[in-house]
Amino acid sequence: MTKTAWVFPGQGSQALNMGIDLLEIASAKAKFDQAEDILDWSVSEVCQQDEERLSRTLYTQPCLYVIETILADLLLEKGEKPDLVAGHSLGEYIALYVAGVFDWSAGLKLVKRRAEIMDNAAGGMMAALMNFDREQLDQVISATPDVVLANDNSPGQVVISGTPEAVKAVMSNVKAKRAVPLKVSGAFHSNLMQTAAQEFQEVLNSVVFNTANVPVASNVDPVPATEAEVLKQRLTQQMTGSVRWREIALQLPAIGITKVVEVGPGNVLTGLVKRTVKGVEFQNIRNSSELPGE
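Below the sequence we write its predicted structure tokens.
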């Protein structure tokens, strides 16, 4: 019997016109309308008309949450069910929603506030490194203050985060095939987000978490869990902690997962898992035409 993990991408996977096909589905259209009431702006308008706004954290995160949760709900309506869920950074909020940890509007309100706080974070830098010597990278990061491994995505792809000086120092001291600065407002998933994380903690404390109905592999701790307090504590650490995606991928075969379904725009996560483990089947649900039975 196939054991399936559903995975949800985060910031960076957005694309102009994503989710527009969903407006033809009544239940999805109702969610877009509900989102507009909560956000005071239209997800569908931003996704259709404004690439610059869509690439800004303030808009990117709520747009991805709305579109990915709608796709996941449509999958569930068709009788599909995951045995494990996980999301990359923002994607963890969709995973928690799908696992029944909080209701849809509570999740969107959390994401809205998270996006506002992160959009205001300034003064840091992030960069992606591809095809590098991991031992050398670890040594250079250890020897360089104010920089951390923010996203451990796959054996050959990571993101570092910290002060601009520290990030540039690592980029110049580590031999990598490619090193690319990212267009983000702050040093996400590092201690430079501590003030933002404390501000967000107050919002998080006000939301009731339920026991998950399917195990969740969290960014800061890949070991699957269902307990409400454990999942909330892990989410608390997420803004300053590393995204341990490579470790999430490595444990999938060990816990019997034989299929990974990426729900959301693009195919970043299936690509990362594919480069990390062998013997797993992949599927992408990027739009309504890729839903089963369509």
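Residues 35 and 41 are 8 Å apart (CA to CA).
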